[in-house]
């Protein structure tokens, strides 16, 4: 009996540790922030999120950095790689294939649109210059940003499900509480889910202008411990690429932090920071309006129907082009040059017929020669 009690206690401790470890990885600093900086002193980004060794950051210029050393509130990073800004042939082929795998290309011609779900893990987050404080329990200014995002998406033809459920206090277990909300939203089968936040760093980190109007920049957050990491990362890059194509530098980067941020529930759950607590809330609301207009082609539709509706024939072109290129490459590799291409083509359309006609004679010869 004592062994059973001991085993049960150990299991409970392991479960508690796993939950706590995940929650600690997603904790934010209280009144402080950390700076990602290169050895040469170049500031890559500042964030109120706890930075760990191994965290990464992809900036708007597609330069990927990784944290290798932490010294107090400074996280030293090194350049890992500079990703290509433009989609190459195989990148487009991959994107097209994934789209067709997740939805029927020709059914996508219908104008049915999936909904977007919005919620706030940190429902107290506010904007001090406008709200008078950085935190308002139960009714943070972040809800006004969420409401603006909802209305702007709806104006762009995207149905929205908006949850204003509170998940306070703003502590390490907030993501465990908001997980229940995310699961309830998933039951309504949204196309994507957006967890809307604001950062807590100096104002200039997010200060920006679009068409002469003050807005806040945006930052996307992807959990490194998320089992859906690759799919979520592709989704984040797609958002940044499309939005920044219309408004350069609007999405300032993607932060890859230790944790899951509930992105293990679905690969299309994105955490977005709309500015910081030192920005005016009106700037964050304008950012929500511009984001909704720029990203509507991504967020609408069942797993991207909006893109397929406008690009079905383009996608079909890429498939045909890929098949032609693949056949040509195969022939060149196996036959050694362009001079055999005509022979292979002739064989593909004619020699098989001849071989079928000659087959009986060949079999007869074989039968005659066999002992």
CATH fold name of the domain at 110-310, please? Aminopeptidase
The CATH superfamily of the domain at 110-310 bears the name Zn-dependent exopeptidases
Number of discrete helical segments? 9
Helical fraction: 40-55%
Any overview of this molecule?
- There is one protein chain.
- Helix 2 (89-102) packs across helix 8 and helix 4 (142-155) runs parallel beside helix 7.
- This protein starts with a helix and ends with a helix.
- It has 371 residues and is of the alpha/beta class.
- Helices cover 45% and strands 20% of the residues.
- It has an eleven-stranded mixed β-sheet, sandwiched between helices.
Topology:
Elements lengths: L1 H24 L8 E5 L4 E5 L8 E4 L3 E9 L2 E9 L6 H14 L13 E4 L8 H4 L10 H14 L4 E3 L11 H13 L5 E8 L7 E4 L2 E4 L1 E6 L5 H18 L4 E7 L11 E8 L4 H19 L5 H31 L5 H29 L2
Parallel strand pairs: 1-5, 6-7, 6-8, 8-13, 11-12
Antiparallel strand pairs: 1-2, 3-4, 3-12, 4-5, 9-10, 11-13
């Amino acid at each position: 009996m004592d062994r059973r009690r001991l085993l049960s206690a150990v299991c409970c401790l392991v479960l508690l540790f796993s939950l706590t470890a995940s929650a600690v990885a997603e904790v934010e600093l209280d009144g402080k922030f950390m700076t990602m900086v290169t050895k040469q002193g170049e500031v890559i980004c500042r964030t109120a999120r706890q930075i760990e060794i191994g965290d990464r950051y992809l900036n708007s210029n597609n330069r990927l950095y990784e944290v290798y050393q932490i010294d107090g509130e400074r996280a030293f990073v090194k350049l890992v790689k500079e990703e290509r800004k433009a989609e190459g042939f195989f990148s487009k082929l991959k994107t097209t294939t994934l789209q067709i795998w997740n939805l029927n290309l020709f059914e996508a011609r219908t104008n049915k649109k999936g909904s977007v779900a919005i919620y706030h893990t940190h429902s107290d987050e506010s904007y001090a210059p406008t709200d008078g404080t950085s935190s308002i329990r139960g009714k943070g200014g972040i809800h006004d940003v969420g409401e603006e995002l909802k209305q702007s998406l709806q104006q762009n033809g995207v149905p929205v499900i908006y949850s204003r459920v509170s998940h306070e206090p703003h502590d390490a277990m907030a993501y465990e509480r908001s997980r229940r909300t995310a699961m309830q939203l998933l039951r309504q089968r949204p196309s994507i889910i957006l967890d809307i936040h604001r950062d807590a760093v100096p104002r200039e980190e997010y200060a920006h202008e679009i068409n002469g109007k003050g807005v806040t920049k945006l930052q996307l957050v992807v959990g490194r411990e998320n089992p859906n990491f690759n799919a979520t990362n592709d989704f984040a890059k797609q958002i940044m690429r499309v939005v920044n194509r219309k408004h350069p530098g609007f999405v300032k980067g993607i932060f890859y932090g230790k944790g899951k941020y509930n992105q293990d529930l679905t690969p299309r759950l994105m955490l977005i920071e709309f500015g910081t607590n030192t920005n005016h809330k009106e700037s964050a609301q304008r950012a929500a309006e511009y984001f909704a207009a720029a990203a509507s082609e991504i967020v609408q539709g069942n797993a991207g129907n909006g893109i397929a509706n406008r690009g079905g024939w383009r996608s079909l072109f890429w498939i045909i082009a890929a098949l032609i290129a693949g056949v040509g490459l195969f022939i060149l590799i196996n036959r050694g040059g362009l001079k055999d291409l005509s022979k292979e083509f002739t064989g593909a359309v004619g020699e098989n017929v001849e071989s079928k006609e000659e087959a009986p004679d060949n079999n007869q010869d074989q039968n005659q020669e066999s002992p």
